[in-house]
Write a structure and sequence with these properties.
The chain has helices spanning 58-63, 93-102, 107-111; strands spanning 29-38, 41-46, 51-55, 71-76, 84-90. With 117 residues, it is of the alpha+beta class. Belongs to the eIF-1A family.
């Protein structure tokens, strides 16, 4: 019997990583968590230079922990879009490394220096 290859799409040396990116058509942005406020709320510095008070939806709150310094995707609210939003995704360390290598975000953006572009 032939050995079973779990990932038939991946050839040797080729990098296939599925990292969700912000959906610009919905207004989603990259953000970095600045401060944990409690009760599922965080202050998030977004790539457009605004700090939004964002809430962690219940399904994310139960599934993963959010910490200061985490890179996230923020969905601004339709009302108060400059002040409020929802956190829709948190990147892992490996995914953040991939985003940095591909130039999607900069190290300065993560550390709080210059903005994205």
């Amino acid at each position: 019997m032939a050995p079973h290859n779990k990932n038939k799409n991946q050839t040797e040396g080729e990098e296939i990583i599925r990292v969700p990116l912000p959906d610009r058509s919905k207004g989603q942005l990259f953000g970095v968590i600045e401060q944990a406020l409690g009760a599922g709320w965080m202050d998030v510095r977004c790539e457009d230079g605004k700090v939004r008070r964002c809430r962690i939806p219940g399904k994310l709150k139960r599934r993963m922990w959010m910490r200061v310094g985490d890179v996230v995707i923020v969905q601004p609210w339709p009302v108060q879009s400059d002040q409020r939003g929802d956190i829709v995704y948190r990147y892992t360390k490996t995914q953040v490394d991939w985003l940095l290598r591909k130039g999607k975000i900069s190290q300065d953006f993560i550390t709080g220096g210059e903005l994205l572009f």
